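Troubleshooting entry. Yesterday's outputs looked truncated, so today I'm pasting the complete records for two proteins to confirm everything comes through intact. If either block looks cut off, that's the bug. Protein one:
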Amino acid sequence: MTAQACKIPYVDPATANPPVAAALAKMPMRRHIFLLLSHSPGLFTPIMGVYSAFFSKETRTLPLLDWQLIVLRVSARLKCQYEWDVNAPVASVHGMQPAKLNAVKACCHIDPKNTDDEIFSKREKLILRVVDEQLETYSNENATMESVLDVLNPAELVETIMVIGFYALIARLIRAVGIDPDGEIPGLEDMIKAGVT
């Protein structure tokens, strides 16, 4: 038997506080990240509300593949393999091409002015620049903000920063305490198609 990678025990749904246990029971799949977040019972429900909001086009402003581009870039830059492994199938099922996934994961330098780069659109290049600058300095260059506002509206820009912060928080939790890979989830592709819009 392999040793557990996580430095703290996962919350046991059978002995979790009742609201957390009820929320875990409603989850369509078992994910170790949910069992880690459950250690904070008072924040678990609000955090899961934010997670859920990202999964629906009814509550998320950004187009699905922009959201996933941001999440995957955060996970790649922060070297959070688990976060990548959870989100890459979502991006793939919804049409992100392998070349784009590979370029995001490789953390290739993105030059929004390079028109020869056919992997990313101008919009995607600017989103990636916002992510990279945020993760490096917690801020953005004025020139980046001016350029990105040509392709994102204010609501999309604010949500971009929120996605960066939220998924960086998750990546940092995982990097701090460790996490084990999730087991195989039968029917995952169908769940993604039905549950992520």
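Protein two, checking that the full record survives here as well:
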Amino acid sequence: MAILNTARYGKDNIRVYKVHRNEQSGTQDVVEMTVGVLLQGDIETSYTQADNSVVVATDSTKNTVYVLAKQNPVSPPELFASIVASHFVETYKHIHTAEVKIVVHKWTRMTVDGNPHPHSFLRDGADTRNVEARADEGKGITIRSSIAGLLVLKSTGSAFHGFVRDEYTTLPEVNDRILSTEVDCGWTWENFSTLNDVKAAVPKFDETWNGARDITLATFAKDESASVQNTMYKMCEQILAAVPMVKEVHYSLPNKHYFEIDLSWHKGLKNTGKDAEVYAPQANPNGLIECTVAR
């Protein structure tokens, strides 16, 4: 006999853009994001008996996101994700869990003639601010915030040696190398009992996101890295120390390799070791290093 173990459904890739117009200053602020919503609850019969009476249509889910974006602030994204998730659990008695994911796309205000432009923006990077919020009936709201797609590189100040050497090892030990990665850093907040508790924490969300980004960049730049593993652990420690409301921090850092090119075949041209200046960036394969550090 077949049994439905788990089921959820919703709307993904909902594109939302919101503008806030300040009539006094004449400036405008914009937010663009991609939203996903998944619902769980007493929906089994829609799968097993073709009973659509328990289905909140995914098109209605999309419309709900737009209405809530009009009626509520969309920044910080932790708040808006919690508002959307709470709405579905509170509005539909048969929906017991709502998961909302938000990806915020960068729009940075332009500087024109030395002054911030009131209504013109540029996308100065592919990195995004991401949020996952989950509202569970009777259990509160869990939130995970993250930085994703932040590409960084330093041309020195990184080493890797003392690792296991055996019959499978060809990698040479190095005391100085290029270090590059695409940062995916996330942190999970202590559980929020109610939406009002999330609202009370609003000032912490922007502060923590900016602080985590600053810690990531400063540690990456300043640390005389013995390994990606050790550097990422130092980042986690600092974020936990800075934000008591965060219970764990996770990093995922792909190691983007840059290999020296031996040019000695061309008239003895030196381009290895201390003479290396020209490198070949590598696409695949790449190292992938991850860790989660909790209190």
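Both blocks look complete. Sanity check on protein two: The CA atoms of residues 27 and 118 lie 4 Å apart.
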